[in-house]
Amino acid sequence: MSARPVSITLLTESDCRLCDHAKEVLGRVAEEYSLLVDEVPLASDHGRELATRAGVMFAPGVLVDGAPFSFGRLSERKLRKTLAARDHHHRGTTRSG
User: Fold this and answer.
1) pLDDT digits over 84-97, tens only?
2) CA distances in angstroms from 16 to 59, 61, 63, 93, 95, listed in the order given
3) Model-level pTM?
C-alpha cells in the first residue's frame, strides 16, 4: 500500500459504461494503493466547475490529487504508472516516524 492516500475525484454521469469501467479500475488499483475516491456527478454545479477547470470534455473525468488526469476510458496502466512514480517520489522525500 502507498504511504499517503491519493485523492481521486471521479466525475460521472448516470448510465455511463465508461464510468462503470473507471469504477472497476479504481477498485482494482485500490487493492494496491490507498485511494480516497470522491465521486461527483458531472451534471452537478460542482461537477461542471471541476470539469471546466480540469478540461474534462466528457465523463468519466479523473483528477488525481486535484490535478487533471484523464477523461473518457480510464487507462489502468497509465494510472498505475502515475501512482508508482508518485509513491517513489514521496518515499524519497518523507521519513517514517
Assistant:
1) 998 776 665 544 43
2) 8, 12, 18, 39, 42
3) 0.86
